[in-house]
Amino acid sequence: MVREQLQTAADDLRTAIESAEDDASERLTELAEKLDALATDDRGPDHGSMARIQNTLNDIKEDVEEDAVEAIDDAKAKISDYRSTVEGV
Fold it and tell me: Around 87, how many Cα atoms within 13 Å sit in the side-chain half-sphere?
């Protein structure tokens, strides 16, 4: 099963990478790869995993240019869309 929201969020992060530098770029790359894996994993990620990714994205936003911030916000919105389909918290 493919979780489209998470794959699209990973694509948004790849867009953000284009405007990011050094450490922020590396962190965004890691998160994009993680979202890709979660999008196709047998079992979907829980709220806690998604919340940690969103919090990390908030931290990264402080270190990037406006173009990257917009792409990160788009990714966060898609993660929130996914989270609305997950039972629990």
Answer: 0
The pTM for the full model equals 0.92
Interatomic CA distance for residues 62 and 34, integer angstroms: 21
Cβ–Cβ under 8 Å, residues 82 and 5:
yes
Q: How far is CA 37 from CA 3, 22, 66, in A?
A: 10, 23, 27
DSSP string, 46-64: -HHHHHHHHHHHHHHHTTS
Q: CB neighbours (10 Å) of residue 78?
A: 22
Per-residue model confidence (pLDDT) at position 78: 96
